[in-house]
Design goal:
about 100 residues, mainly beta
């Protein structure tokens, strides 16, 4: 985190997400397919920690660089929106040990 004050910390978030969107049709138009998903995300995160335990809240906006379009029987059934958003609330536990520094080190 970029900023820290007592038990609070926060900072910017930047991510690049690469994956695949999959779809499947049934009944008379049975079939399936997958298309590339590429999206940069930007936002911010804030967290509050007590000892090893804490909560983090993150909010992000993304602009897909590849916008998959799924069609069934030559009719568009789904098209990825030009802007995406997400909010996440996370509970975390810090693992490991942190040694106190010895005098003179």
């Amino acid at each position: 985190m970029l900023w820290s004050r007592a038990r609070w910390s926060g900072g910017p978030l930047l991510e690049l997400e690469l994956g695949a969107l999959r779809g499947r049709a049934s009944q008379e138009a049975a079939g399936s397919g997958a298309m590339l998903w590429l999206c940069p995300w930007g936002g911010a995160s804030v967290s509050y920690a007590v000892g090893r335990f804490g909560l983090a809240l993150a909010a992000q906006l993304g602009v897909p660089l590849v916008r998959p379009r799924f069609t069934v029987l030559d009719m568009e059934s789904y098209h990825t929106s030009p802007v995406a958003g997400r909010v996440a609330l996370t509970f975390f536990v810090a693992l490991g040990t942190k040694k106190a520094s010895e005098p003179g080190q």
